[in-house]
Amino acid sequence: MKPAPFRYADPGTLEEAIAVLSSEGAGAKVLAGGQSLLPLLSMRLAAPTTLVDINRVPGLDTVEATGDGVTVGALVRHNALLHDAAAARVQPLLARATANVAHPAIRNRGTTVGSIAHADPSGEMTSVLALTDGHVTVATPSGVSTVEWRDFFVGPLETSVHGPAVVTSAFFPALPDRSGTAFAEVARRKGDYAVCGAGVVVTLDADRRVAAVRASYVSVGLTPEVHDLTDAVVGQPADSADWAAAGALARTLVDPDTDIHASADYRRLLVGVLTERTLVAAAAEALGGTE
Amino acid sequence: MTTKLFGEPVRRREDARLIVGKGRYLDDIGSNALAAAFVRSPHAHARVVDIDVDGALEVEGLVAIYTYEDLHGPMAEPLPVLIPHPQLHAPRTGYPLANGEVNHVGEPVVMVVATDRYVAEDVCDRIVVTYEELPVVVGVDAARSATHAVHAEIPDNVAARHHQETGDVEPALAASPHTLSFTQYIERSACMPMEGKGVHARWDDADSSLRVYSSTQASTSVRAAIAAKLELSLDKVEVIAPDVGGGFGVKINHPWPEELMVPLAAIALQAEVKWSEDRREHFISSAHERQQRQEITVGYDDDGRITALDVHIWHDNGAYTPYGIIVPIVTATQLVGPYVLPVYRVIVESVYTNTVIVTPYRGAGRPQGCYAMERTMDRIADALGLDRALVRERNLIRPDQFPYDHHLTFQDGRPVIYDSGDYPGLLDKLKALVGWSAAEELRAAAAERGKLLGVGMAMYVEGTGPGPYEGGHVQVLGSGKVLVSTGLTSQGQGHETVFAQIVASELGVPIEDIEVTTGDTRRFGYAVGTFASRAAVMSGNAIALAARGVREKALRIAADVLEVDPGDLEIDNGVVQVKGTPGASMPLRTVAVVSNPLRYAFDEAAKQATQFARPGSDDKPPVAVGDAPGLEHVDYYSPIRSTFASGAHAAIVEIDPATWEIDVVKYAVVHDCGNVVNPMIVEGQVHGGVAQGVGGALYERMVYDKDGQLQNASFMDFLMPYASEVPDIDIDHQQTPSPLNALGIKGAGEAGVIPGTAAIASAIEDAVGRRIASMPISPTELYDLMRNDDSELTAACARRSGTGAMA
Prior knowledge:
The complex is a heterodimer of chains A (about 290) and B (about 800).
Chain A: E1 7-9, H1 14-24, E2 28-31, H2 37-42, E3 50-53, E4 63-65, E5 69-73, H3 78-82, H4 85-90, H5 93-98, H6 104-109, H7 112-118, H8 124-131, E6 135-140, E7 143-148, H9 149-152, E8 153-155, E9 158-159, E10 166-173, E11 179-187, E12 194-204, E13 210-218, E14 226-228, H10 230-233, H11 243-253, H12 264-290
Parallel strand pairs in A: 1-3, 2-3
Antiparallel strand pairs in A: 4-5, 5-10, 6-7, 6-10, 8-9, 11-12, 12-13, 13-14
Helix pairs in contact in A: 7-8, 11-12
Chain B: H1 15-19, E1 34-40, E2 46-52, E3 62-66, E4 101-102, E5 108-114, H2 117-126, E6 128-133, H3 140-145, E7 158-165, H4 169-174, E8 178-186, E9 198-204, E10 209-214, H5 219-229, E11 237-240, H6 257-269, E12 273-276, H7 279-285, E13 292-300, E14 306-318, H8 326-334, E15 344-352, H9 366-384, H10 388-395, E16 404-409, E17 415-418, H11 423-434, H12 439-448, E18 452-464, E19 470-476, E20 482-486, H13 495-507, E21 514-518, H14 535-562, E22 569-572, E23 575-578, E24 585-587, H15 588-594, E25 631-637, E26 643-655, E27 662-672, H16 679-699, E28 729-733, H17 756-768, E29 774-775, H18 779-787, H19 795-799
Parallel strand pairs in B: 1-12, 8-29, 10-11, 14-15, 20-21, 27-28
Antiparallel strand pairs in B: 1-5, 2-4, 2-6, 3-5, 7-15, 8-13, 9-10, 9-12, 13-14, 16-17, 18-26, 19-20, 19-25, 22-23, 23-24, 26-27
């Protein structure tokens, strides 16, 4: 469990980081928190030629919450986001999901953006980026661009970003008006990767009836997906909507896999249960916000 | 400072050192040593066709590469079958490095020695081994069907057929008012100590001597094995177990290939060599335990009393049998528990599979035996519509039946004769502790919260403290320091504390003056090892006897100096004094000084013992015939047979009928290990055992695929319970002293883990009303069970409407 030899660089600026990535070629890998990358190295499941450690790069460690949404820099640790009150006000899903990311020791070191760039379908923050319809900002030798979540996640542990590039931030749009959110997971042990997780957003109309329901899941499917469950409950009063019907609809929309911890059928069951439970909570929150 | 510490909750003396990072574990030793790493088989069953090292030779830092061809003499022979047994008719062991065939993923094929572990692993990556794959056998059922053989010359895959019976079971079953039969399974888990195995070896060429540090549970026997395999004189080999970060059984098996290969390299290279096992290596090349298929037929009467029990078990022993059939024997003989079984027959077929070897893991076959017996009790109760506690109570051995002879032969070759116990007492305490009679109210209250609640219990008897012997050495120095040593090893149990408590109490010295050393062959050469809940019983009693020997000698010497009768003396707080006479005394350290007649006064204290300071009688030698200089004593404790501790556990589970998550909301333990040396340490042992019991019941499983690849060989996917998964544990003690040893103690190390699987299976079954016949069980499996129309409902479920029905 010792990594194969690799070169190490710790550039002091973003430009320098991009330059090093360019010169080192395809074998170079960006290191931020290292909570996924270093175990892969130690088990020799990955053998990058060069680690480009961006921890010295200035300006990447901030959380910016505005009326439009929350921008999370590439060096923001999960724990910082978890405790960022302004971010939680703008987009409550951030703290709710981050609380489910592993254990404090991992949250203290691991970064939210690193987790998204890692594109693990068992990651909470990939799912939240999708659910909030967010995007990432990518710096490359040819400049800075944004990539919508839909275009970013390509497959398990695979994104559309190739070549010399640093994902410098992720942007999570603000929660719409008259909306509520909830996030819940079933994990084998506290802090484990979820067997199944669910995040939902319920939006009401001016009459406190259900206008929109969106859900996204963790450890279900190969890449993050957002499912529109509005049809199951649209127009129903939020305090008595048939959330079970929304859960049932969700079960028909997902295509989970079997692994050693859970069968696909069990995951599908949990999609239904967690959808219903989170929708009840999210609707209550949305109602509270309209009072 | 008190010296009467036996039975007191003395805080663990070793903890400060261990907690602040001052422990000295294997990997803390020899920071400049060369590092060993191993190329291990990626296949579960294959012939080794070719080993090509050419691509590795240019790696800078490579020192040596070893394959089987480099082994000679005893090293080229198979590893020892440590515990031979007449019923182990087809034993097989591996070689230090694979000899032409590999039988499980992880078997060592090549050893690389390099300047550090990174380089050694780089070299391993470049060695190309060509294999010819062979058919793979995984799991007891595949081994039993014997479509393929693990070892070609053993076509039925059966290593041993262990058979014991106490009467003619078939007519007894035929004459029984009722019988029932069932089959159940229990899965593989493993010890998973925080620290894996590890070996450091250093050869002193001028002295022709070898020092080996090993993270082992049996340093004396590792020493003997190294001497035998490397053809060294025993006196030129010393083996030391430094601080060991947990063992739980896996480190009792020996010699591991690495324990021989690392010293071999150290000698050949004339250099320090070290190997520290990494976690993946531990998963795929150490040892697992627990998988069995159990076929049980029981006869019983209308009251639920057992009339006959017939058990046929298939036990997965993995690829090899280095530890003999200890686990099968323990299952077979401990299965009987606290119950009267008029006729009992057990057959355990120990079968080969292409998986990691199976050697004792805390409990060592007992959890499986307990699972068989206790689930039988639950089935009888269910069939008769009786309370599960009542059926158990009716079958218990009564307190007036001790010593109770089961007419079985235990793992130490001695009869299974229970020394003492009060099993009805355990059951009464357990029912009170867990609130057994209030179960229906709890169930109703949980139902209102939308949860399914169930209660379960399990009882066990645990043979502890098997021989053949352990020894103890106690020595008082002229400084007043008291040195205590024993040959068996410590892996965090608190031996430094409990052995010191025993000596403090026996000798009358402050515990602060006592230093305990374990597992160091330089200090004590004769020992068996730490396993089977034996350290307190065996070394505890040996050390007590040694302390008594020192005390007797001290009183004799002091009586001579003080010119009083030894019978009038006592030792209190490190001072020998005349009972009831202030002033007539001498410190024990002074007794130690004068116990050693001296010519030379090397320090101030020594003056007292020199030849002109204290002239003796002219007609007696300074050291009397039959006596020896120094205030020290060695003694041994060799028991006639094992002691039998006992206990009863109960679990209350709550299950979410939407997600089938299982939560253990209450866990109660009543525990009887005879006299208790340190109740805090005993409770700590119970807590750790219960944690492993919960792990074995709900979380842990070695997931092999059909090709023999371990799918979850890391802590990401092998789910040991965190603190967040272990319930609070309520403990009540009962103390039934053992009549077999001077301290009246029985072992406590393994007890906590034994009934976990049985009690939790019982509780889940009680909650859901479906038969639980395979453990561990996870939510996804419980979901499958609940939605399967063919899964068996319990009779209790049918009687209790509403529970167990699917939503």
